[in-house]
Amino acid sequence: MAKKSSSAGFKSSFKVPSDGDGHDGHSMHNEILVGLPKKECEAVFSNLEFVEMRLHDVLNEMGEPIKYCYFVNSGLASILNVMSDGKSVEVGLTGKEGFVGLPIVVGLNTSANRVVTQIAGTAFRCPQLERALNRYSQTLALQSTQVAACNRLHEVEERLARWLLMSQDRIGGDAVPLTQDFLAHMLGTRRASVTVAAGILQKAGLITYARGAVKIVNRENLEDATCECYEVITRQARNWRKESS
């Protein structure tokens, strides 16, 4: 976890910075904080604490409660997707332009990713931050990061099963209209690879494919055939709905 700065009294002796000047010798470079309207500055800055981010510090842990949010001031934080076997892949970076702990701003309490310090630096830390933002934006970000990891780490037939399940969840019914060219584009692979993957699923009795549409004939077994990413996305989205209800 990030180390608290030895400079005491940041909150009690707070003053609104201007032109990038911070407080008590700490320059402020975070673009979100520097760009806040003056009328919002005092309410936000009075809750901030200056901390050091050491190399490989875990700022947020996947699946665990978010204790703090971080406005990165210098250095670099890496956003990681972590698989069940412990393998991880970087799906995003946050520097002085950004913020670590986004689920908090939409009323959610847990992180879908592990966020670690990639390059040591500093941050302004806050225990909570409430904003009336659209929860869907966070769910969409979850999908994007998980799918990015999925496309790199998992086999085409697993990714195809995941894509079909996600599509059925959103459109309803058993038939998903598509072409193999479209699927190849969505999965980031060649059409020939999609043809082979669809053939594997069809031979297993999970789908049928004809006239530009896939019909899911055995959803339960299709869920077994997909990778862990589908369950990760749906479980986290479900947990967030409960947290914000």
Summarize the structure.
With 245 residues, the chain is α+β, with helices and mostly antiparallel strands.
Roughly how much helix do the residues carry, as a percent range? 25-40%
- What is the number of helices? 9
Strand content: 15-25%
First CA to last CA: what distance?
30 Å
Mean pLDDT: 80
What best-fitting shape do the alpha-carbon axes yield? elongated
- What's the SSE pattern? EHHEEEEEHEHHEHHEEHH
Class by alpha and beta content: alpha+beta
How many strand elements? Answer: 10
Low-confidence stretches: 6-20, 130-134
| Rg, alpha carbons | 22 Å
Protein model, in words:
The structure is a single chain. This protein is an alpha+beta fold. Strands 1, 2, 3, 4, 5, 6 and 7 form a 7-stranded antiparallel beta sheet that branches. It has a 3-stranded antiparallel beta sheet with strand order 8-10-9. It contains 9 helices and 10 strands. The model is unreliable at 6-20 and 130-134 (pLDDT under 50). It has helices at 31-34, 38-45, 102-105, 135-153, 156-171, 180-187, 191-203, 219-225, 229-244, and strands spanning 3-4, 49-53, 58-60, 69-82, 88-94, 99-100, 114-126, 175-177, 207-210, 213-216.
Any descriptors?
245 residues, 39% helix, 9 helices, elongated, alpha+beta, 10 strands, 3-stranded antiparallel β-sheet, 7-stranded antiparallel β-sheet
What is the fold's blueprint, element by element?
Blueprint: E1 3-4, H1 31-34, H2 38-45, E2 49-53, E3 58-60, E4 69-82, E5 88-94, E6 99-100, H3 102-105, E7 114-126, H4 135-153, H5 156-171, E8 175-177, H6 180-187, H7 191-203, E9 207-210, E10 213-216, H8 219-225, H9 229-244
Antiparallel strand pairs: 1-2, 2-7, 3-7, 4-5, 4-6, 4-7, 8-10, 9-10
